[in-house]
Amino acid sequence: MSKPNQTLGEFIIENQSDFAYSSGELSRLINSIRLAAKVVNHEVNKAGLVDIVGAYGETNIQGEDQQKLDVYANNKFIQTLTNREIVCGIASEENDDFIRIEGHKGDHQNKYVVLIDPLDGSSNIDVNVSVGTIFSIYRRVTPIGTPVELEDFLQPGNNQVAAGYIIYGTSTMLVYTTGHGTNGFTLNPALGSWYLSHPDMKFPESGTIYSINEGNYVHFPQGVKDYIKYCQEEKDDRPYTSRYIGSMVSDIHRNMIKGGIFMYPKSSKANNGKLRLLYECNPMAFIVEQAGGKASDGFQRILNIKPTELHQRIPFFCGSKKMVEKAEEFMRVSE
Ligand code: AHM
Ligand code: MG
């Protein structure tokens, strides 16, 4: 139940019983993410003012340029989670390997692992366009008291206990789920508090927006080409509107409010597309499904996929249920 002016802190306390294994640890974890998000938000907001924008001179494991703010956000989230000794392991899109956190007693007592894309869409920072943070939380599968292993991170998205994103947009929002619906909080920068502004978000069952990088059209599989043509056809409520920010969190956030589909398919240039299953697709799929939407790789539900590697990429179709189903239909026909 949403109450007027409810803060994220109040909401977490009130809904603590929603958490699968309610020991307070998961609440503390989300609390520390909201804290780190405020600090990152502060840096992102002043990106145009200070000499922090621009390539850092390093590339991440996928061979892409890292921006300075990527590094800042990565460090900030890792530092906050590590210092508070809440999690036993962190995997980040920006790091080659996962990090083990043994705890100050060295006894590996923490239960949760966090997977994070600290600053998604960071190439948009230089041009003052929205970026986001995406996080995904699992309960470890290896025994408590031992160091975390790769298998703790390679769990299907179905096992997520919580996931969320922060959108650094015209206003800053934190949207998350613990498997009991999706709720959105807006940061009041003057007070530094997050307020429940979008309770129990609902992805419209259908919509009229399609979001895809059409510059890659000639490289797309036939099913995607056909679906794009379907979106552009003059019939019923079509042609649809094309909207593509190039910042997945913002594209999906908009579609979740207005109704639409976001697609990053495979192409003849990139056999598995671009987006990462663990840091981007699984958490977004969980959030979107909890709001009544759908997420697929074109053929199967994203959350059912068993990951095989930390930085695995996957084609991604995500949005209004009926639109994703339609896109899947086109994919099947052209197979
Ligand atoms: P990043 O994690 O390196 O920032 O890349 C992910 C971003 C998504 O936010 C966005 O949807 C996509 O890359 C845009 O890619 P493209 O420029 O190929 O359309
Ligand atoms: Mg990313």
UniProtKB/TrEMBL annotation:
Pfam families from the UniProt entry: FBPase, FBPase_C
Compartment(s) of residence: Cytoplasm
InterPro entries reported for this sequence: FBPase_C_dom, FBPase_class-1, FBPase_N, FBPtase, Fructose_bisphosphatase_AS
Keywords for the protein's UniProt record, in alphabetical order: Carbohydrate metabolism, Cytoplasm, Hydrolase, Magnesium, Metal-binding
Required cofactor names: Mg(2+)
CDD domains reported for this sequence: FBPase
UniProt: substrate binding residues: 120-123, 213, 244, 274
Major localisation: cytoplasm
Cofactor note: Binds 2 magnesium ions per subunit.
Residues the record lists as binding Mg(2+) 1: 93, 117, 119
Residue stretches making up the Fructose-1-6-bisphosphatase class 1 C-terminal domain: 204-331
Domain of life of the organism encoding this protein: Bacteria
Family from the record: Belongs to the FBPase class 1 family.
Organism: Christiangramia antarctica
Reactions listed under catalytic activity: beta-D-fructose 1,6-bisphosphate + H2O = beta-D-fructose 6-phosphate + phosphate
Binding residues annotated for Mg(2+) 2, in chain numbering: 117, 120, 280
Pathway the protein contributes to: Carbohydrate biosynthesis; Calvin cycle
This protein's name: Fructose-1,6-bisphosphatase class 1
Protein EC: 3.1.3.11
